[in-house]
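Lecture 7 notes: from sequence to structure.

We start with a single chain of 199 residues. Read the sequence below before looking at the structure.
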Amino acid sequence: MCAGCRESLPVLRPPFCERCGAPTAWPVSRCRECSGRRLAFASARAAVEYDDRVRRLVAGWKERGLRRLAAAAADEVVAAVVRPQVSALTFVPPDRERVLERGHHPAERLAHELGRRWELPVVPLLARARWVRHQRGLDRAERRRNVAGAFRPAATAPARVALVDDVYTSGATANAAASALRKGGARRVEVVTFARVVR
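Now the structure, written as tokens:
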């Protein structure tokens, strides 16, 4: 990305909801978005708001093979998100069909770029337990049902781990993946994404 494009990114700045990372008017431990929900992750943080500009950027990265954007995304995350106090990074596991279509897995590439910058190991701790249809076009309740039980532990997780994904939309995928990490031994899961939807 050119310097102008980077400067135009809608960087998320505090205050945030302590739990889900949604921007708030003042610091809160829970916000309207996550209050009343049982969340398997301790916190979620993102670098930028998922607006139309970022949507086009993510589409180029994920769907049009612009793999180098993973490094640019990692730079933005490192600049905006405090390094998580964890012993390893992992990533939301890929859907085999989508990896074959794209030729790469954006969340995994972002995790490796962050691992280099934060000097943390990247470990594949999760696997898909079943096929999941695309989340696009589903409402929040449908998203939660769609990914419930979609992941399983693939290895024993360290006590503190960060889960990396490209975009936090409703939190359904992050929650389902964090739940599987907890079953795999993690005691605290922190979610880190490049972008998040702001409602």
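The chain is about 35% helix and 20% strand. Keep this in mind for problem set 3.
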